[in-house]
Write a structure and sequence with these properties.
alpha+beta; Phosphorylase Kinase, domain 1; Immunoglobulin-like; 26% helix
Length: 664
């Protein structure tokens, strides 16, 4: 039964319209903005939560974090309402249902679709983790869809309820002893009460397992506590999916948080599997197992000196008790194992022959031939010793870069996803024969096709070190030294990569061989690779740089500009402004509507051209948008109106308010 009634006000700006659902933490209502008529969703927390001063204080404290959490795959929070006994989060209304609804309708999903939905969920988690926000309750119920799901669809995931779990966490823990939903809880959350980013990745892994199998890995008979502790003590039952996909699932569901990938790493790894899973069919729903395999644990092994066979009996000494058989102690209650170790039988020894008195007898093995070979060996050893005195000093005089022998080693580094949807992953290995570093850089696009030049900085090892020699492998992507006079980015050891086109949901890889002095082991390699990632990030986020170079990496945001006032029945001018680290650039807009020429190169790079731009009505019918989503027309008078927009990976954009008046 609903706690609240239809038509009731919510705060000063909203009105309850329709109950959409209810759950453990409260009710979800469709609400209308009383001034603009815009529709939103509002989650009203239970009355007992709103009556708790600690919860209210925590709720208010989380407000700025939640409002700032913006990503294409995260449900945007618009407002927080604290009013009497009401505590509500107002967010965008997402109309495609939840992944839970999708599961209930279909039972299981094809591996390709399950992987794609989980990858987008991990994108949302990665964005939140980048702001030090953890979800704490990742599950299909909290993953919404922007539209009814059709197989092969991408870009529809909207993760919701960020902050809800953190707000009510302590109260839930005090009342239930558990922090989260038992089916999706990470082992460390159960055994130690810890719930960090790795626990969110574990929850995403459980959801992926459920999308594939129709059940969570540890579902079965028993109480919530019994189910929860299976996450700690049991291994997930294998399901009939390709080995590469199962390998990734095992990484997500690792008991050790440190063994799991980050959310960004997991997203990239899953996207690499999508193509290979194109023809894999959906599984039939998997039944709950009768029993679960326990996690392998170390066993105590006691190795004694008991005889294993009768050939070498052990005779007890007088102090040993041999009065009778050992008492029966019953079945062992732990994994202590006693393994008798056979004592080898003593070999019979022949009595040594006594040489005749007065002289030593030569051993039988010391023949004349052996004496000849021994003499030859002495001569060779002497020659080597004398030669070594001359040769070794010269051999030890190596060049400074050759003082240490390179060891086979590898390192891995990944940047945070950029606002344009670009994810960069770097992997380096040392070739022990040549001492060179083989570098692989993978660029992945999340929500939109990306292209254009990319910047990479490959510094020397250590402060002040010379730039290393780099040889890029031939391919569709070409590399050249960065020209600061052309790009405006004046960073040492930087390269410009051109020719890259990264389709949405795909990736492009470039390779190079780098000769970095003093990088000869795993630790030095990881330090150098981290420095390369940090130097590249610093270069593309430098606020002193102006210009439009490297937009895929440097673009930080997009603003939608309109006139403060327009006249009804006229076309509304809309300008899309790029926001760089140095600020908004009104002189070089990304796009103007209505368009009067070809799209800008920047728009081609970050959104794939006009196909990546869409405007929509933010005025409850006061605006009309053309079928291609590119031209906006004012229809009727409105005191406060906005235009909503999507530009590539930048979604949920909204203009500043403007008014629509009549010509009179």
């Amino acid at each position: 039964m609903a706690q609240y009634g239809q038509g009731e006000p919510l705060g000063a700006s909203y009105r309850l319209v329709e109950l959409l659902g209810s759950g453990a933490t409260g009710e979800v209502w469709r609400v209308d903005h009383t001034a603009t008529g815009e529709r939103f969703a509002a989650k009203l927390l239970r009355a007992e939560l709103a009556a708790d001063p600690e919860i209210v204080e925590r709720f208010v404290r989380e407000r700025s974090v939640l409002l700032a959490l913006q990503h294409p795959s995260i449900v945007r929070v618009r407002d927080l309402v604290v009013e009497g006994d009401r505590l509500a989060i107002v967010m965008d209304l997402v109309g495609g249902g939840s992944v839970r609804d999708l599961l209930e309708a279909s039972g299981t999903l094809a591996p390709r679709d399950a992987v794609a939905l989980t990858a987008e969920t991990l994108d949302a988690l990665a964005a939140a983790h980048g702001r030090d926000v953890t979800h704490r309750d990742v599950k299909p119920d909290n993953v919404l869809l922007a539209e009814p799901f059709v197989s092969g669809t991408t870009g529809v995931v909207r993760v919701t309820d960020f902050g809800i779990a953190s707000v009510v966490a302590e109260r839930e823990r005090k009342t239930t002893g558990l922090l989260g939903t038992p089916q999706y809880m990470a082992p460390e959350s159960i055994s130690h009460g810890r719930s960090g980013p790795a626990a969110d990745v574990y929850g995403a892994g459980v959801m992926l397992y459920e999308l594939l199998a129709g059940r969570t890995p540890f579902a079965g008979t028993g109480t919530d506590f019994a189910v929860a502790y299976r996450h700690v003590t049991s291994t997930p039952p294998r399901i009939d999916v390709p080995d590469a996909l199962w390998s990734q699932l095992e990484r997500f569901l690792a008991k050790d948080p440190a063994a799991r990938p980050t959310a960004a790493e997991g997203s990239v790894a899953l996207r690499r599997l999508v193509r290979s899973l194109a023809d894999a069919p959906a599984l039939a729903p998997v039944a709950d197992p009768d029993a679960f395999d326990e996690v392998a644990r170390p066993a105590t092994v006691v190795r004694g000196s008991l005889a294993a066979d009768t050939a070498s009996p052990v005779t007890p000494g007088p102090a040993e008790d041999t009065a009778g058989p050992a008492p029966e102690l019953g079945a062992a209650s732990s994994s202590t194992v006693i393994r008798p170790m056979a004592r080898p039988a003593a070999l019979p020894q022949a009595a040594p022959e006594t040489p005749p008195s007065g002289r030593l007898r030569r051993p039988e093995w010391l023949t004349n031939r052996a004496l000849a070979f021994g003499a030859l060996g002495v001569v060779l050893v002497a020659a080597l010793v004398v030669g070594g005195v001359v040769w070794l000093p010269g051999a030890l005089r190596k060049s400074p870069g050759q003082q240490a022998t390179a060891q086979a080693a590898s390192a891995y580094q990944q940047d945070r996803p950029l606002p344009t949807g670009l994810t960069t992953t770097r992997k380096a290995t040392i070739d022990p024969e040549s001492g060179a570093v083989d570098l692989t850089i993978t660029y992945a696009a999340q929500g939109a096709t990306l292209s254009g030049p990319l910047l990479e900085v490959l510094p020397g090892a250590g402060t002040g070190a010379a730039c290393p020699t780099v040889r890029w492998q031939d391919g569709t992507v070409t590399a050249a030294r960065n020209q600061p006079s052309l790009t405006g980015v004046d960073t040492a050891c930087s390269w410009t990569l051109t020719g890259a086109r990264i389709d949405a949901g795909a990736d492009v890889t470039v390779e190079a061989r780098v000769r970095v002095a003093s990088v000869t082991d795993s630790a030095a390699l990881q330090q150098w690779l981290d420095a390369a990632g940090a130097a590249t990030t610093a270069a593309v986020t430098d606020q002193s740089v102006t210009g439009t170079a490297f937009p895929v990496q440097r673009l930080q945001g997009v603003e939608v500009r309109t006139p403060d006032r327009t006249v009804s029945q006229t076309t509304l001018p809309v300008t899309v402004i790029p926001v760089w680290p140095s600020g908004a650039d009104e002189l070089n807009p990304l796009y103007r509507s209505p368009a009067s020429g070809s799209p800008s190169q920047m728009l081609q790079d970050v959104a794939g051209g006009e196909s990546g731009v869409r405007f929509s009505d933010g005025c409850s019918g006061a605006l009309a948008v053309s079928s291609d989503g590119l031209v906006v027309t004012a229809l009727s008078v409105a005191p406060s109106c906005t235009v909503r927009a999507t530009v590539g990976a930048f979604t949920d954009l909204e203009s500043t308010p403007f008014s629509i008046t009549t010509r009179d």
